[in-house]
Input
Amino acid sequence: MKRYGFIGYGNMGRAVLLSLLGKDSIAPDKVMVYNRTPDRLKELSASYPDVVIASDPPKIARASDVLFLCTDSSAVLSVLEDLSPYIDMRTHVVSINGGISIEEIEARHNGPVSRVIPTIIMTSGHGLTLITHGCRVPLAMQMDLQALFQRCSKVKVLAEDDLVRYTDLTSCAPGLLAMMVEAFVQAGARSSGLPLKEVQEVLLETLVGTASILAKGSESTHGLMEKVATKGGITEKGLRVLEMELPSTFDHMFEATRKAR
Output
């Protein structure tokens, strides 16, 4: 069986590893993990005692058939340069960072390189994981990597140039949507006088049901709005406000994320 190494255990690295372990995509005794802050790994060790917690990154690099780089953008290339003497050219290096290109990684590793843009919500079994492969990745390796993530999320394989067009809609979206829900809850509490916790419970239940209907395709967004909004009613007036204000807000949001790249 393949051995998997993980360098870094931040929020996204944690989501990836726990999702893969939770769906039995990889066996705990085939996993080695290194993190600069060992305390962050205590929860992992308690849940999966067979996972090897390493204090020596080169040891992980030497032992891994698939090496996941889960560090910040600013550290990926320097970490890879430090580890490159220990990485076999047959090792499949996988970066989960959106800011580093395959070309930059291939300049430091002569073997197969892929990029994975995961989503934090994959821990729930939902979301879309984006994957792109370098030219040195054999088809069998591509399929193996894709199969890992297909057990815990949907997978979309893209050309590298297309990753940026999807990232806001997949990896960034949970945070952006959480902000929208927070604003909705706060406004709902101010308007209704109900406790924040009560408003959040009601709204989230409504949100889950709405998403379920739309995801099943049994109703379109416009169809659902028409069914809820009776002519001259409360919902129709609320929709008119959103129709005037939301498009520009979302345009500004996407403009800001594009400029940040």
Observations:
- The first helix runs from residue 11 to 22.
- The domain at 4-170 is CATH 3.40.50.720 (Rossmann fold).
